[in-house]
Amino acid sequence: MRLVLLLAALAPIWAQDTRVILLGTGTPNPEPEHSGPAVAIVSGDQVYVVDCGPGVVRRAAQAGLGMEQLTRLFVTHLHSDHTAGLPDIIFTPAVTGRKTPLEIYGPPGIHAMTRHILQAYAEDMQVRLHGLEPAVPQAYVVTAHDVQPGLVYRDDAVRVTAFAVKHGSWRSAFGYRFEARDKSVVISGDTTYSDGLVAAAKGCDILIHEVYSAKGLEKRTPDWQRYHKAFHTSAEDVGRVAAQVKPKTLVLYHQLPMGETPDEVLSEVRRNYTGNVIYGRDLDVIR
């Protein structure tokens, strides 16, 4: 009888099966094998997308996600490589299967960006909604929320907390922590080494963190060296972060190897971190 009760209690957790799908591991560099930065956290049949780099919706389709599932988006910051797919995630699912409104959460400015996109596509929406094409009006409803660090979203599957990170001269840049019953996932967004991120991520199951190769950076010109050091995190510093956070799995994305191999980047991380680390590739699934 006790075993039956235990199995009944665990069933919702097993059913949740929270996992990460890397929809895009790239950067502004137009590399065909790396779509722009985008990550899906899937918990049961619920999908939460973080960032919307170029190619986000087609990668979601490749990953087996339904257009009707693309209803929640969390944006880390407003750099173009993280938001160039915003019209895509607004309109492509609306045309091809979404049934309900899209909710967007991000730093101050995401509301204005979304409003301008909707204005730019006003004629498209007019023709689709009021022409001969069968359409679902609710699919074209978009609500964008300018949020501050703290709890920004919750439902029956997850709680989502935003925390501030340091990304060069951006006034607002966030990472996010997703807490499900069976797993916790933290996404760094774009950041330099951040004590705030370390504090927010401690004890998570999966840490997804951006990275550049320190060895590769040595080959760049001084202006680019200054830029990357102020805006991004070296592989050695990612190792420092992970050594303090102690995730079960560290996943590298938004990778800037700068001519170095994945093995070189991993070796730089491992100078400070001996745990499990994955050099992410588009469409990888991490549990």
Question: How are the SSEs placed, and which strands pair?
Answer:
Blueprint: H1 2-16, E1 19-24, E2 38-43, E3 46-50, H2 56-62, E4 72-74, H3 80-83, H4 86-96, E5 102-106, H5 110-120, H6 122-130, E6 142-146, E7 150-154, E8 158-164, E9 174-180, E10 184-187, H7 195-201, E11 206-212, H8 214-217, H9 222-231, H10 235-245, E12 249-256, H11 262-269, E13 277-279, E14 285-286
Parallel strand pairs: 3-4, 4-5, 5-6, 10-11, 11-12, 12-13
Antiparallel strand pairs: 1-2, 1-14, 2-3, 7-8, 8-9, 9-10
Helix pairs in contact: 7-10, 10-11
Written overview of the protein:
There is one protein chain. This protein is an alpha/beta fold and 287 residues long. The chain is 34% helix and 25% strand. It is built from eleven helices and 14 strands. A seven-stranded mixed sheet has the order 6-5-4-3-2-1-14. The chain has a seven-stranded mixed sheet with strand order 7-8-9-10-11-12-13. The longest helix is centred in the N-terminal third of the chain and has 15 residues, at 2-16.
